[in-house]
Amino acid sequence: MLILTAREVRQVLDGAERQVVEAVGRAYQLHSAGRTELPHSLFLRFPDRPRDRIIALPGYLGADEPVAGIKWISSFPGNLAAGLERASAAVILNSMRTGHPEVLLEGSVISARRTAASAALAAATLAPAEPQTGVTLVGCGVINFEVLRFLHALLPELAEVTVFDLDPARAAAFAERCADRLPGLKAGTADRIEDALAAHRLVSIATTAATPHLDPSPCRPGTLLLHLSLRDLAPETILSSVNIVDDGDHVCREATSLHLAEQQVGHREFISDSIGAILTSGRRHRDPERLTVFSPFGLGVLDLAVADLVHRRAREQGLGTDVPDFLGGGE
């Protein structure tokens, strides 16, 4: 068993944004082609702690060299007040020859970057005719910072970011970090959510909201909304938008905005397409007048694709701690 820590995972992935996006894009296309096995994610919830959860995401990716494994990720929003990260995770990859676990990776870095890669891929794939020079980030946490880094890598024309958070001090610190880490990018804050939504036609939402709260009416015509936290929009907004998903069956669960919309109308005809099918076919769905919403549930095969990339590169670089007797040698 090879064990890779968060530091080692970052060492492998830093500067590899395009390779991560390519891995995520291939996984989406394999999923669209039916070359994956993806059981529904299992949500472990706690009766007296409704905001906290731990999710198991098993999967199989039928690439030329197949990958199987699982991500086990927790989300405890109260950690933020204690100065801790909201999410923590582990990923296990299994041998396709023996079924034995081969590598244990710290998973929160992988999870954040595959989410960001997915968002940036959607932004590039669903791009408007004119250059996308600015982006609004709603929610100033790890996910949106990674989204910005990946957008910066994929969209060379990106020049400005406007951030909003319910905590103004957090938003100000986040904007300062963006400007410091991504030189040449103009970073500013918005005092009101309405101003943030109206600032740019590319908006990324990554909050801890459990129920719909966001009125997107201030968005400009033709805005692409990267709905990463999945529960911010009312069913009425979903039903009036062009909806792109990663997997309709997976995303219409667990009280997501799309799940609520499905419960309201009794069908899923409001889903226009999947990102995998778009990547494969080249179809376009960015409406110049309506809101386009990308709602990725976060397929476990994406984590496997990025974890496999990390595993291979770590082996090449001699990283990680090998535990040869992890399975006990049959004793």
| Strand runs, count | 16
* Major sheet description: 8 strands, mixed
- H/E element string? EHHEEEEEEHEHEHEHEEHEHHEHEHE
CATH superfamily heading of the largest domain: NAD(P)-binding Rossmann-like Domain
Q: Any idea what the shape is?
A: globular
Briefly note the structural class of the backbone: alpha/beta
Gap between N and C termini? 16 Å
- Mean pLDDT, as a whole number? 95
Q: How many whole angstroms does the radius of gyration measure?
A: 19 Å
Write the CATH architecture name of the largest domain.
3-Layer(aba) Sandwich
How many domain units? Answer: 2
Share of residues in helices: 25-40%
Tally of contiguous helical segments = 11
Tell me the CATH topology of the largest domain. Answer: Rossmann fold
Question: Which residues sit in consecutive blocks of at least 5 with pLDDT less than 50?
Answer: none
Strand content: 15-25%
CATH secondary-structure class of the largest domain: Alpha Beta
Structure description:
The protein has two domains: 2-110 and 300-330, ornithine cyclodeaminase, domain 1 (2-Layer Sandwich); 127-295, 3-Layer(aba) Sandwich (Rossmann fold). The protein has helices at 6-13, 17-32, 108-125, 142-154, 168-181, 193-199, 235-239, 248-251, 257-265, 275-281, 300-317, and strands spanning 2-4, 36-37, 42-46, 49-61, 67-75, 87-94, 101-106, 134-138, 160-164, 186-189, 202-205, 224-227, 242-245, 271-274, 292-295, 321-322. Strands 1, 2, 3, 4, 5, 6, 7 and 16 form an eight-stranded mixed beta sheet that branches. An eight-stranded parallel beta sheet has the order 10-9-8-11-12-15-13-14, sandwiched between helices. The two termini are 16 Å apart. Helix content is 36%, strand content 25%. α2 crosses α10 (275-281), α2 crosses α11 (300-317) and α3 packs across α4 (142-154). The protein has eleven helices and 16 strands. By secondary structure, it is an alpha/beta fold.
